Amino acid sequence: MDKINRLNMLISDADEAYKKSVENILDEILPCIDMDFRHEVAEKICRDKHKSPDEIILMHDGRAFDNPALVDLLTERIQNTRKENEGLKPCIDTRYWCETCGSHSHEENPKNGYCFVCNTDNWEPENYRNI
What we know:
With 131 residues, the protein is mainly alpha-helical.
């Protein structure tokens, strides 16, 4: 039983060290985010290996387009998405808008259904919150 307890303790310590490293990286890349945001996002990045860190950051509070601390990250993601989508024709679904980038173009990627502008899956129904 000592080996199992030790294994669990060492894994837990490694997880905590990794989370602290991620928080330090967030401090460097996004120095204007508050501590709660940084802590919560670091936990999500450590847990969710299926999404990119920038997607996790931008989708954390929803409205990245309204957060001055995230403008540069969102702008870069939009530019990268534009390059990735070259040659693709978007599908239109007028029922939803993108809560990450604020786009009301209703354009979605035909391959994955993500926003054609910022490549996140953060759709809100139109007129849900009167935006």
